[in-house]
Amino acid sequence: MKNSESRRHFLKQALALSAFSVTPGLLAGQTFTSGKPVSPSDRVNLACIGIGNRGGEIINALYNTGLCNIVALCDVDMGAPHTQAILGKFPDVPRFQDFRKMFDAMANQIDAVSVGTPDHSHFPITMMAMALGKHVYVEKPLARTFRENELLMQAARKYKVATQMGNQGHSDGNYFQFKAWVDAGIIKDVTAITAHMNSARRWHGWDTGISRFPQGQPVPDTLDWDLWLMAAEHHDFHKDFVNGQWRSWYHFGLGALGDWGAHIIDTAHEFLNLGLPYEISCLKAEGHNDFFFPQSSTILFRFPERGNMPPVDITWYDGVNNVPAVPEGYGVSELDPNIPPPSTGQIQPAKLNPGKIIYSKELTFKGGSHGSTLSIIPEDKAKEMASRLPEVPKSPSNHFANFLKACKGEEKCRSPFEISGPLSQVFSLGVLSQWLNTRLVFDRNTKQITNHKKANELLAGPPPRKGWEDFYKV
Predict the structure, then answer these.
(1) What is the pTM of this model?
(2) Please, which of 62, 146, 213, 246 could form a disulfide with 252 given CB 3.0 to 4.6 Å?
(3) What is the rounded CA–CA span in Å between residue 90 and residue 303?
């Protein structure tokens, strides 16, 4: 399958997922089984898609576990300065600009892939990898639109591969503490959660009176701009669309909520069995416009009763001057050294650091981001409860080792698509309320927005560009 015609023929077959009657590996003339675990005695052969910036950090973290071999490197801009560190570290590894050509050439040599690309491009890469029987580690948020998340969950169930979203705190202290405290009845009857991220973002200070996308600029010689866009609707190249700036735009990213919500809301969402909200309201959108995210936002998510658990409201705050009120006895907002700073600079310890406040009928908890553990407030209540707190198990592996061990059948992923998919859908719904600056009513059974036609259409997003349609079939 060396020529472009045979590659197109293969892609048409391999990605027409609804027509599959055999594994995609057999369709491509391969002999591997979809989702086959790697032998415990072997390292996982890992292909890395997106090798600069955050993608490069993911590659290093996976490689440093000692559990994988890096067998392929792929990036739409192999000549960019931010790709050079990884290229220099793995000089003899095969290189590709197009992930489809990488799979054409090396599908039978790859066990798993890491996806460290912009939010809008997670979906097609991950769909193709799973269809080819590859285990996948995908940076958060899982995908940009509600529908893309839904399709990724369906595909993961079909192909039975190991899947992990990159909210790495989901393998650290807060994950194990939250579960232990719920199991022991310490965290129970939660009624409200405040979640907040108040550091400066990339788009802060931009002209919010914008009435169009920025004027196109010359495409760098090393960048395949058409491939960077993937299934997204066409935009002319601009420097403020790439190298992390994509997170600023509704068409490409999920803003502060999609970036940090996965590190702040994740354990509450899983262990309180929140699922999907029935109502999402954008209560504040300072500097709202139709193109990039507000300077500050307040979003209310309302979740119904779940079994014997009461309804829960989560209120999300972002923006430098949109700091939520804290309860009496909150104490100092300490800066956890394990939390990475925002890409635009340092977190300011004098302000409220990224985190959450959890209100139950009897107790109040405060916590940070990522793997930061919870504490009970006020302090005298914490001292009173100290003897009744359960022992919290230590993590047997970090998030990257957990994924690779899952590829080998030794552990189960802690943030598989069945868990991280609904969480990412919460973010997609929140972003729709920001984008439209309105209240949305969501039917959890039909998975439709019932009070806003345009918002309901945006659950799926615009149709994929020509040539990318088959990625959206399961």
Answers:
(1) 0.90
(2) 246
(3) 47
Q: Which of 46, 85, 42 is nearest to 62 (CA)?
A: 46
Instruction: Give the C-alpha separation, 360 to 84, whole Å.
Output: 49
Region for 275 from its dihedrals, namely left if φ exceeds 0, alpha if ψ lies in -120 to 50, beta otherwise? left
Checking if the pLDDT of 31 tops 90, the result is no
For 359, list phi and psi in degrees, rounded to 5.
-110, 120
CATH number for the domain harbouring residue 105: 3.40.50.720
Q: What share of the chain is helix, strand, coil (3-state, %, to 5)?
A: 35, 15, 45
Strands (E), 427-467: 439-443, 448-449
Q: Are 449 and 456 in contact (CB under 8 A)?
A: yes
Number of domains in the chain: 1
Least confident stretch, 200-204, 213-217, 347-351, 381-385: 347-351
Tokens of 95: 């290189």
Taking the C-alpha atoms of residue 408 and residue 37, their distance in angstroms, rounded to an integer, is 5
User: Residue 46: inside a domain, yes or no?
Assistant: yes
**Is pLDDT at 336 greater than 60 in this prediction?**
no
pLDDT: which is higher, 329 or 392: 392
